[in-house]
Amino acid sequence: MAHKQQYESLPGKNGGEPPMASKEATVIVSQPAKLSPTEEYVLNLDPNTVAGWSVQEVNQNFLERAGLGYMAEMFSVNKINGKCLMLLTEGHLHELGITCLGDRIYLTELIGLLKKKKREAELSAAKWSGVTPAPGIAYKEDCGECCVAYFCPCCLAKTYWRVTGQGVFYKREPPCGLWTEVRTEYMDYRFFKDLELKTTRKCLCCCTATELEMYVDDHDSSGAQKEGEPPNPGAFHPHVLRHPEARNVEQIIRNSWNRARLVAE
Q1: Which PROSITE patterns match (predicted)?
Q2: CB neighbours (10 Å) of residue 252?
Q3: Are 140 and 209 in contact (CB under 8 A)?
Q4: Which helix (H) or strand (E) is 194 found in, with range?
Q5: Cα dihedral value 43, 49, 53, 57, nearest 10
Q6: b or e along 134-147 (b: 16 or more beta carbons within 10 Å of the residue's beta carbon)?
Q7: pLDDT tens for each residue of 148-164
Q8: How far apart are CA 242 and CA 43, in angstroms?
């Protein structure tokens, strides 16, 4: 006579009790994001310096530090210098004859850190910098400002501008002797709405000056805008750059602004 097979209930199923160890186990919700010494070394490299490395320097300063010195001969035969290093992809590494998948992935990650550092450096680098009020009568508000600029330059409030690939920085410094706060502001291209290049006459209306008006969304002057309508430039306080190079600055900002919008899309 056949005996009926007995089944045991599994822990956690149909009222079964889980093992005691699982009750006391600690649930890990996140892993530490600490970088390895090699990753920290790569992130501290200057992309401009790496771009000037010779083939030998790539082998010594990069491959050896990453523990991948056996690839030096392949890099040397294929003349991989610093500039080529930052252009390598995993496909290129496969063409070089690096058959170990783990090493290819690891090296690709390190090169990716270099590329990231290079992009950040390019975005933060100044494409234009200048000071307002700019030299010349045409770039002063009135005769009083012209006299102050000529007889006591330190008594004139100044604004220092810096245009980068990410946005526009400007720092307003008060005249000497005034204990007021130095203001530093940043305008991100993602919030730009419009640019307008103008010519104006300020000092006695005898000279023509060039100025660039920048309309930015994060400085809304509470102008009303209906849903579905395009933004109204008049609804924003423009940031005005009066400078002889305003026309060149407009082109720099437009190019960087377009790239920022392409990345966002």
Answers
A1: SAM_DOMAIN (PS50105)
A2: 16
A3: no
A4: strand 192-200
A5: -50
A6: beebbbbeeeebbe
A7: 777 777 788 899 999 99
A8: 39
Whose CA is closest to 185, among 156, 150, 208, 214? Answer: 214
The burial of 110, by beta-carbon neighbours within 10 Å (0-12 exposed, 13-18 middle, 19 or more buried), is given as buried
Q: What's 164's DSSP letter?
A: E
> Which CB contacts under 8 angstroms, 24+ apart, belong to 4-13?
none
CA distance 53 to 61: 9
| Residue among 183, 175, 168, 194 at smallest CA distance from 133 | 175
Q: Choose the weakest-confidence range: 134-138, 166-170, 213-217.
A: 134-138
Closest CA to 199 of 191, 208, 188: 208
Token representation of residue 259: 């790239």
Q: How far apart are CA 55 and CA 107, in angstroms?
A: 16
Q: Write down the residue that tokens 């970088």 correspond to.
A: 35
Task: Answer yes or no: are the C-beta atoms of 63 and 75 closer than 8 Å.
Answer: yes
Tens digits of residue pLDDT in 8-38: 444 544 444 444 444 444 454 445 457 788 9
- 133: cis peptide before it, omega within 30°? yes
Structure pTM?
0.64
Q: State the DSSP H helix or E strand holding residue 188, giving kind and residue range, or none if neither.
A: strand 183-188
Report the sign of the C-alpha dihedral through residues 127, 132, 134, 139, in that order: positive
DSSP class per residue in 57-77 = HHIIIIITTTT-GGGHHHHHH
* Dist CA 229 CA 253 (whole Å): 25
- Compute the distance between CA of residue 58 and CA of residue 50 in angstroms, rounded to an integer: 8
Tell which wins on pLDDT, 33 or 115.
115
CA angle 262, 88, 72 (to 5 degrees): 160
